[in-house]
Write a structure and sequence with these properties.
alpha/beta; 5-stranded parallel β-sheet; 11 helices; 19% strand
Length: 269
């Protein structure tokens, strides 16, 4: 049974993609198709702000891309040296709030200690931050994408917790997306499940998938990596068969398995 994952592969250096691996344990043959391209912006401004930990109460990360932006800054030897010798230690005296495990592991890679990784989405992370921060304290620095949702900033603002957002990447459609999708459907046929990993993925892929699957679209179980993506799918008129309980390979694979099992039970009645 084939599953289509609308996401980038994990870094090639770190072995097989964990989602492909986990779905394989359930007997699914998963294929990855990259959907998004990212352009990094304002990197000098980002490092300028990172150079002044005394101005901030901590850091907030809701996307691995924001950490990628920092890692690009640190590729310059002079900046890496300053980070390693002084800045890292000074930031480590402050919280680095993260939305999930993928973001947490990248925070650890730059030498910081993540907090809040079990949150799983922006709403829960905002609640977690509110339970730990005092109103009108120093601002939290929030490197983010141009398409960020306003959930987390709105909740913090309502609680009087200052947040300084800085756009460090822009999201565009991957150049090969249309060709990759056409090739997949013509060679592999209709998958039993298609998984969306972001609202942008819904925006860029849905029309192509509807066109390529035709009347068979009703046979596909559409899955979401989390509630934000599920909301975007519902808004676009896609029936969501399952939403992963948390954004991990294990919960996604279990959710797809359960959705297909329920379908089979209904068909056998």
């Amino acid at each position: 049974m084939k599953v289509l994952l609308l996401k980038d592969p994990k870094d090639k250096d770190s072995g097989p993609d964990p989602y492909v691996k986990e779905l394989g344990l359930y007997g699914f043959e998963a294929t990855l198709i990259p959907v998004l391209s990212f352009e990094f912006v304002s990197l000098d401004s980002l490092f300028g702000k990172l150079s002044h930990p005394e101005c901030y109460g901590g850091l907030v990360f809701t996307s691995p891309r924001a950490l990628e932006a920092i890692k690009i800054c640190l590729k310059e030897n002079s900046k890496n040296e300053v980070w390693s010798k002084t800045l890292k230690q000074r930031w480590n005296s402050k919280p680095a709030y993260v939305v999930g495990k993928a973001t947490a592991s990248l925070v650890e890679e730059i030498g910081l200690t993540p907090q809040g990784e079990k949150s799983g989405n922006a709403e829960k992370l905002a609640e977690y931050i509110c339970s730990r921060e005092k109103p009108n304290s120093s601002a939290l620095l929030f490197p983010c994408g141009a398409l960020k949702r306003e959930v987390l900033p709105t909740v913090l603002r309502e609680k009087g917790i200052p947040l300084e957002s800085l756009t460090v990447y822009q999201t565009t459609q991957h150049a090969d997306l249309q060709e990759s999708l056409s090739s997949y459907f013509s060679q592999q046929g209709i998958p039993v499940s298609v998984v969306f990993f972001s609202p942008s993925g819904v925006k860029f892929c849905l029309q192509h998938i509807q066109k390529l699957s035709g009347d068979f679209i009703n046979h596909i179980k559409f899955a979401a990596i989390g509630p934000t993506t599920a909301e975007a799918m519902e808004g676009a008129g896609i029936p969501v068969s399952c939403t992963a309980q948390s954004p991990t390979p294990q919960d996604l694979a279990a959710g797809i398995q359960e959705a297909l099992h329920m379908q089979n039970c209904c068909l056998s009645k």
